[in-house]
Structures are given as structure tokens and as C-alpha cells.
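Reminder to self: C-alpha cells first, then the designed residues, so the page reads top to bottom the way the pipeline ran.
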């Protein structure tokens, strides 16, 4: 059998010879499933479906999303799933990972399996395109005071889907269908990874000085009614301010983070804000200060990553982000590091819109890990896997890789967000981690250096990153 006959052939109506379709086929078939394929467009093909064939067997998949989205001169208006969503019951027919009925963003609850063909009613490609490009964020209003698209406005909230990687579930279904017809096909079996990152908003606590010490002392007595806390505050402010001993600074958790991640053999990255005209909202340090320089050298020496934390106002401002990137590069070079060590990072406050990906891309950054909801942990993009971004406005695939953010400690614990106690936060984080690893994606955990204030914080962090040998 020659090499070519092993390839899948994808058959589509010629109407679909567009950048959107080439992108999503490549992302799903080549990026996620690691399959080789060839595309055939023809006038005769049925425009309701996409056909995957090899030899005399084939899979037909619903293609209703693109039928409505694409027209000859470009793109149609709003295409949103109609709710309530239908559900597909797969049972044990294909041995998929998801053990419940599958909600259908686009398509019909149909699945027929015969010896030489499979019909999948779910529009796998259209739904993946809809989720990965964050199309609903362009169509829908519903942004919060930081101009962040909120979960409340998303189909994921309406249908309670945010804790399930819906795209990974669809891609798993397609992969299992391919294996059913062509058992010799090799589809991706990449192991999942746990990636920890720390946004450095505040370098050190620096707040046990002057009036702030007095305020804290008053709070310890009047509010906390704790002589123990009062003495602790006195001791810590003396050690930090008089002796210059940063060991007592509660934001100084860098060594702890590195030690913990090294112990579990987990990747760790620190993202730094590099704005020179600093607004209060951008934290409390100057990227070019000797303190930062020393810290960056220490982090790098221990083999961890340094990345960019785009400032509050840079998320839609190319020149601002360009300057910040340059400031960080200057510090890296001053530390004796090459600018190539800078790969990516995340926007402060998780501020993001389509423009953000464009400016990260234009600035030559390799990946961005901003895309998660602040108010809730889970799968904003429907996937735990990295993928190339497609700019729906300019109809163009970008080089920037989206590394979805799955779990931020602030989302779990903060009163404004999920407001969980540590005991209830753990099973939620743990389930998300399991789903990411099962599907061969990344469980990306964001934990700020300034978020280790209680014994419970350390315990929760350590439990979440525990390596259970599933990597
Ligand atoms: Zn931040």
C-alpha cells in the first residue's frame, strides 16, 4: 500500500474552499488528531456534510454551521447555537471518554455506525471553529467593568458547559469513529501536561511600612481581636523594614513555588509586568529594578520560564505591548539571557478580545495564556489543548498559539467570583485537571505569588499540583 492511499481524503463542496475551512480542517485533523489528509473540492459534493474517506469506507459529518456562515463573497451574519441544545447519547458504541450525553452546539443528535460507514450528526468542525475563534464574543455584548467577556453572556453558562472541554469531547468522538473504521490509523496520543504559571502583579508586599503598619496593627486588635496576629505583624514589619529580610514578606513565595513545582516535576513560568509609566492597577514594581533583575536570574538559573504579563492598558494597544516586550527583553539581556527565552505570557486581569491576539501575534510572541474566564474556572475555548488562533475579522490564521487558561486560584476563592472555601475548591480543580490530562491537553493553573496568605492556600496549591503519575 503506498503512502498516499493511507491518507484520509476530505471531500467538500467547492463553496467551502475558504480560509476558515482550511484552518479548521488543519487544526482538528492535523493539529489535534495528527492525521494526514488531502482535500478534494467539487461542484457535485453535498454542501450539508463533510465526507472523510479512505478506500471504500467513509465518515459523514454534519456541516450545517459553515453552510450558514460562509457565502461566496465572505461571511454571513450572526450564527449562534439555538438553545436549549440537543444532546447525543453515544453510550458505549465508540468507547469515547465522555460518559454522559453530549450537548450539541451545531448539528443533530444522530449517530449511525455500520461496518463501512459512520454518520455523525454533530457538526464537529463548525462547533470547533465557533469555540476556538471565540466567535460569540464578537457577536454578543456582555462585558464586565474591565471589558472582559463574561461567562454569564456565554452559551457555556446558559448550558452549564464551562467545566467540560466540549471541543475535546467532539474531537475524541471523531477520533474514535476514525479508529472504528480504520483501526490501523494512528491518531494523536500525546500525554497531557500540568503547567503552572504565576502572574507577578506585586513583587513584594511592601505594605508593612509607615502608616500601613499602624493600620494593620489596628486591624489585628480591633477586627481580628488577635494578640498573636498583632505580634506577628510587629515582628514581620521589623524584619522586612528594619532588617531588610524579605523572608517574612508573604508575597515572596518565588522559592516556594519553584521548590514545589520542581518536586512534582511540573513546568513553571513567571510572567512580569513591564510597563514603565505604571498605573496603580499595574502592581507595584519597576521591571528594571535590581530586585527584579536578581529574581529573574534566580528563576532562570533554576530552569523556569520568564514571560510577559501585558499591563492593564496594553491588551488592545500594539505600541504599548511592543514597548513592554522591549523593556522585558532589555532586562533579560541585562541578566545575560537571550531574548529568545521570551516565548509568551498573559494579559493582566485576563483582558482579551480579538485584537489582543492580533497584537501578540504582530509582536512576535509565540503563545498567549490569557483565555480563561476570571469569574469561573473551566474551558472558555472549549479545549484544554493549544491551538493556532484564527482572526475571524480579517479571515486569517495567525501564528500565535492560544494556550487556554483553565484554572486561576482567584476564580475559585475570591468573593467576587466562585467564592469557594478551600475544601470545595479542590474537587473542582481536580476534576478539571483530570479532564485536561485525559484528553491529552494542558491543565494550566495560574497561582499568583501574592496568593499564599494562609496555611490552606499552600495546602490547596500542593494538592492541585500533585503529580499522580498521570502525565
Ligand atoms: Zn495580573
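Designed residues (471 positions):
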Amino acid at each position: 500500500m503506498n503512502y498516499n492511499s493511507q491518507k484520509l481524503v476530505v471531500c467538500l463542496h467547492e463553496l467551502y474552499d475558504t480560509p476558515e475551512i482550511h484552518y479548521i480542517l488543519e487544526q482538528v485533523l492535523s493539529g489535534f488528531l495528527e492525521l494526514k489528509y488531502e482535500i478534494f473540492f467539487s461542484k457535485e459534493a453535498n454542501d450539508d456534510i463533510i465526507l472523510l474517506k479512505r478506500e471504500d469506507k467513509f465518515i459523514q459529518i454534519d456541516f450545517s454551521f459553515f453552510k450558514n456562515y460562509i457565502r461566496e463573497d465572505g461571511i454571513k451574519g450572526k450564527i449562534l447555537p439555538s438553545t436549549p441544545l440537543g444532546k447525543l447519547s453515544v453510550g458505549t458504541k465508540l468507547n469515547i471518554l465522555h460518559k454522559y450525553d453530549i450537548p450539541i452546539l451545531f448539528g443533530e443528535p444522530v449517530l449511525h455506525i455500520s461496518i463501512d460507514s459512520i454518520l455523525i450528526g454533530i457538526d464537529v468542525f463548525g462547533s470547533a471553529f465557533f469555540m476556538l475563534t471565540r466567535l460569540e464574543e464578537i457577536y454578543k455584548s456582555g462585558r464586565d467593568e474591565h471589558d472582559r467577556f463574561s461567562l454569564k453572556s456565554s452559551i457555556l453558562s446558559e448550558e452549564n458547559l464551562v467545566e467540560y472541554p466540549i471541543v475535546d469531547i467532539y474531537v475524541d468522538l471523531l477520533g474514535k469513529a476514525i479508529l472504528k473504521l480504520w483501526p490501523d490509523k494512528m491518531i494523536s496520543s500525546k500525554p497531557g501536561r500540568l503547567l503552572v504559571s504565576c502572574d507577578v502583579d506585586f513583587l513584594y508586599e511592601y505594605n508593612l511600612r509607615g502608616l500601613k503598619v499602624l493600620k494593620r496593627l489596628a486591624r489585628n486588635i480591633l477586627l481580628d481581636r488577635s494578640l498573636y496576629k498583632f505580634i506577628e505583624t510587629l515582628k514581620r514589619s521589623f524584619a522586612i523594614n528594619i532588617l531588610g529580610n524579605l523572608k517574612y514578606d508573604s508575597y515572596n513565595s518565588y522559592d516556594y513555588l519553584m521548590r514545589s513545582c520542581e518536586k512534582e516535576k511540573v513546568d513553571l513560568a513567571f510572567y512580569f509586568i513591564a510597563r514603565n509609566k505604571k498605573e496603580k492597577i499595574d502592581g507595584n514594581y519597576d521591571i528594571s529594578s535590581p530586585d527584579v533583575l536578581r529574581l529573574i536570574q534566580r528563576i532562570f538559573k533554576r530552569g523556569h520560564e520568564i514571560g510577559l504579563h501585558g499591563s492593564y492598558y496594553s491588551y488592545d494597544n500594539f505600541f504599548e505591548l511592543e514597548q513592554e516586550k522591549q523593556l522585558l527583553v532589555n532586562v533579560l539581556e541585562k541578566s545575560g539571557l537571550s531574548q529568545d527565552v521570551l516565548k509568551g505570557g498573559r494579559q493582566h486581569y485576563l483582558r482579551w478580545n480579538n485584537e489582543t491576539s492580533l497584537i501578540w501575534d504582530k509582536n512576535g510572541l509565540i503563545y498567549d495564556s490569557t483565555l480563561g474566564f476570571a469569574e469561573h474556572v473551566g474551558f472558555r475555548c472549549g479545549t484544554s489543548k493549544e491551538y493556532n488562533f484564527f482572526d475571524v475579522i480579517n479571515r486569517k490564521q495567525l501564528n500565535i498559539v492560544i494556550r487556554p487558561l483553565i484554572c486561576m486560584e482567584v476564580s475559585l476563592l475570591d468573593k467576587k467570583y466562585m467564592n469557594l472555601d478551600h475544601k470545595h475548591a479542590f474537587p473542582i480543580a481536580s476534576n478539571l485537571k483530570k479532564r485536561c490530562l485525559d484528553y491529552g491537553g494542558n491543565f494550566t493553573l495560574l497561582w499568583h505569588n501574592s496568593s499564599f496568605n494562609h496555611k490552606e492556600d499552600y495546602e490547596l496549591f500542593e494538592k492541585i499540583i500533585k503529580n499522580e503519575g498521570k502525565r
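The chain is about 35% helix and 20% strand.
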